[in-house]
Design a protein that fits this description.
With 540 residues, the protein is an alpha/beta fold. The chain is 64% helix and 6% strand. A hairpin with a 2-residue loop joins strand 4 and strand 5. Helix 7 packs across helix 8.
């Protein structure tokens, strides 16, 4: 007697294998034809932290921006030639996302051409300009698709896959995971899922594992070496992120009563945390308490409107227009509600001080693009409607791909030039103030030059006091920035003119000295300036 389940299992496995092949082939082809570049310096920093180079003296799973569990995973991935574990994990996540998109859309009856067109439209930019927030959002989008497929066709494997994607979306970037989950709430068929015991059990287990991951991450930052970082991170956020520094300078009496100057507040607003007397959480919190609650920015409405306008940015426009056209071609009440929630969320994020963050919007638009396809029963639509949907997605994918390829080629030329210019870079730790160093161009995703990997960067930023950082460990050895400022040779700094003015005032106000340039070294557009605070000679 022939087992009737065997042909179905073989067909299912072959569909999955084809999906893996198509996704991997697309991702690897782009990686071979182009040179992927990190979209922001956040991923560069986390790769440095995970593997102990650049701004990090030692490798650590405490990535700060991602969950520590993700840190352990990327550190466990073995290095292949010049390809680091963080890069491999990022590319692997994109292959998985592509596989899920291609496989689930075909299972929902969309056909190979439409599924491939959607994959290309969604993944072209994330592959050539990868970013952890985008990956977290797309992993969560994949989870939503899997749960919707499960509600229609069943299958514990699909349900489990969705839960795994959701968990990894959380550990890569929890905020983006929660944002996509919020926006997707109207899309899921809750009336079916509420009655499904298997789904409820899976959801409960997912909630428990996410809670466990959050607890593990919290505990990872409770050691003695993290206390200084934690205390300052809470106190500095209103100053660096929410405009409290500007408000404090309007109240010089508060500043003066705590022994600070206007220049000190400008330094702290510019991430200058290397002097413990200035980066004092107790004093900063006291000043903020005297200042009182921060008022809503007068331009908050304009920030919200700016966020909405950002949807027409060239990097988003093809997906935005395609999603909008699919809403008109395949209208649906749930889809319309999802659009309302999406627009409202984007507007509110802008009002809260986070306007126009493209990496946050890419997964949102990806969800809005795919949602009409799995909500509408694509196979039941008229042939003309199916053709119209395919044309919209294909044209959007074509325009998007051409733009991304052009942008990638330009970025590659800049990256090659930056890496050539960095030859002969100082071997000692060089202070990088703010965004003055081109991290994304110096450290591409796949090909790391040994000379660039050997550079030690003393970063002034969020991670200045993190225990793994070059800045933290140099300070322990008596080679902190302030120590070297008063040394004979000075300290090498990469900064801008605004920083030199702040440094001049700092030397005069706190060290009774004047700042001057000892020497400088040019590396293309990067200028390394050795600065020294020289004591003033007191007249007898």
């Amino acid at each position: 007697m022939v087992n009737s389940a065997a042909p179905k299992l073989i067909e299912k496995n072959s569909q999955l294998a084809i999906s893996v092949f198509v996704s991997a082939a697309f991702v690897l082809a782009l990686c071979l034809l182009f040179e992927p570049r990190w979209d922001t310096n956040d991923d560069v920093a986390m790769s440095m932290v995970a593997h102990g180079y650049g701004i990090a003296s030692i490798g650590s799973p405490n990535l700060v921006f991602s969950n520590v569990i993700w840190g352990y995973l990327v550190r466990a991935v073995p290095q292949i030639n010049d390809l680091l574990g963080y890069s491999i994990a990022t590319i692997a996540a994109l292959v998985i996302i592509g596989t899920v998109i291609f496989y689930t859309l075909q299972k929902l009856g969309l056909g190979s051409l439409v599924s491939l067109s959607v994959l290309i439209l969604i993944l072209a930019r994330p592959v050539l300009f990868p970013q952890f927030t985008i990956n977290a959002g797309l992993l969560t989008v994949g989870a939503i698709i899997c749960w919707h497929l499960y509600s229609q066709q069943g299958g514990k494997q699909v349900l489990l896959t969705g839960c795994l994607l959701a968990f990894f979306g959380y550990v890569v970037r929890s905020y983006e995971f929660l944002l996509i989950l919020l926006i997707a709430l109207p899309l899921l068929p809750w009336e079916k899922l509420y009655k499904d015991r298997t789904f409820l059990k899976a959801a409960a287990i997912l909630l428990l594992t996410i809670s466990g991951a959050a607890f593990v991450d919290y505990q990872a930052y409770q050691g003695d070496s993290w206390q200084q970082f934690n205390a300052l991170n809470t106190a500095r956020a209103p100053i660096t992120d929410f405009g409290a520094g500007v408000l404090l300078k309007k109240h010089p009496e508060i500043i003066a009563s705590h022994g600070y100057t206007l220049n000190d507040i400008s330094l702290l607003s510019s991430w200058f945390f290397v002097d413990p007397k200035l980066a004092d959480p107790i004093q900063l919190n006291a000043m903020l308490q005297e200042l009182g609650p921060l008022p809503s920015p007068s331009h908050s409405f304009m920030n919200g409107w700016l966020s909405i306008k950002t949807l027409t940015h060239p990097a988003l426009l093809p997906s935005f227009l395609a999603s909008l056209l699919l809403l008109l071609i395949l209208p649906n009440r749930r889809l319309f509600l999802t659009w309302v929630v999406s627009i409202a969320t984007i507007f509110v994020l802008g009002m809260l001080g986070r306007p126009g963050i493209i990496r946050v919007y890419i997964p949102i638009l990806s969800l809005l693009l795919i949602a009409p396809l799995f909500l509408q029963g694509y196979k039941t639509k008229k042939y003309f409607t199916q053709c119209l949907v395919f044309i919209v997605i294909m044209v959007a994918g074509l325009f998007n791909t051409i733009a991304v390829f052009s942008e990638s080629r330009n970025a590659q030329m800049v990256s090659e030039e930056v890496r050539r210019d960095l030859q002969g870079f100082p071997k000692e730790a060089v202070v990088v103030w703010g965004s003055a160093f081109p991290y994304e161009y110096a450290y591409p995703v796949l090909r790391q030059a040994e000379s660039v990997m050997a550079i030690k960067l003393y970063g002034l930023g969020v991670l200045t006091l993190a225990p793994f950082s070059v800045s933290y460990n140099e300070s322990l050895l008596g080679r902190g920035m302030v120590d070297r400022l008063v040394s004979e040779n000075g300290v090498p700094i990469i900064g801008v003119n605004q920083h030199w003015n702040l440094l001049n005032n700092y030397c005069e106000e706190h060290l009774n000295a004047f700042s001057h340039e000892v020497k400088n070294q040019q590396h293309g557009l990067i200028n390394v300036s050795w600065r020294r605070c020289e004591k003033k000679v007191t007249q007898q």
